[in-house]
Amino acid sequence: MPNIPGADVRQSPYASKLASLEPEGIPALALAALALPVALASFLSTVEGVDHG
């Protein structure tokens, strides 16, 4: 990678937020991440079946 003066590596704000999570909160975050696609798929399948006319 080229060395460009003034182009410093910056840490993502999301990485610092994730790094500050307490160990007890990690399973809850993982569960939410797994449940979100299921809930979205369920919602979309319901919307597809609705008669809009």
Q: Your description of this structure?
A:
The protein is mostly helical and 53 residues long. Helices cover 57% and strands 0% of the residues. It has 2 helices and no strands. The longest helix has 23 residues, at 26-48.
Summary of the model, kept short:
With 53 residues, this protein is mainly α. Helices cover 57% and strands 0% of the residues.
Total DSSP E strands: 0
Q: What gap, in angstroms, lies between the N and C termini?
A: 57 Å
Oligomer: single chain
The H-and-E topology, N to C, reads as HH
Q: What is the alpha-carbon Rg in Å?
A: 20 Å
Overall mean confidence score, pLDDT: 77
Could you give the topology of this structure?
Layout: H1 13-19, H2 26-48
Write out key terms for the chains shown.
single chain; 53 residues; mainly alpha
